[in-house]
Specification:
Layout: H1 2-13, H2 25-54, H3 57-79, H4 86-116, H5 121-131
């Protein structure tokens, strides 16, 4: 909602109709940042859901909240110079990777239970709970 309101605000302050606004770098930056955030959102939801369902809910929820804050930082950084958005982008990639690895660990644990009868769920939950605070390190 914040991204859409920012886009609407910049759209009203630019001259012209529609999305074809020549010479409006502020609008272009806001529009591009909004599109970038919108394109990554389905991937984020998929890995968040899989990590929470297959591995552990608490670290997945923590990583999900961190990702939302990071995307906010990316968006606000994109409104300034493009180099200001780079830390938010890299931080977001790291969180998506963490959620993806949690999903893979949950799937591997399922197959270990299915084929060998070994359950490593408690070990995986302990490891992910210990690693999730490390996401705060920039």
């Amino acid at each position: 909602a914040f991204f859409a309101s920012k886009l609407e605000h910049e759209s009203k302050h630019c001259n012209g109709k529609g999305f074809q606004r020549p010479g409006s770098s502020a609008f272009d930056r806001v529009y591009t940042a909004n599109q970038n955030c919108g394109h990554t959102y389905p991937t984020f939801l998929a890995v968040l859901w899989c990590a929470g369902l297959l591995c552990s809910q608490a670290p997945a929820a923590f990583a999900g909240l961190m990702y939302l804050f990071v995307r906010q930082k990316y968006f606000v950084g994109y409104l300034g110079e493009r180099t200001q958005s780079t830390p938010g982008y890299l931080f977001g990639k790291r969180i998506i990777l963490f959620l993806f690895l949690m999903s893979v660990a949950g799937i591997l644990n399922y197959y270990l239970i299915f084929f060998f009868g070994s359950d490593f769920e408690m070990h995986i939950k302990t490891i992910t709970s210990a690693i999730s605070p490390l996401l705060l390190i920039p």
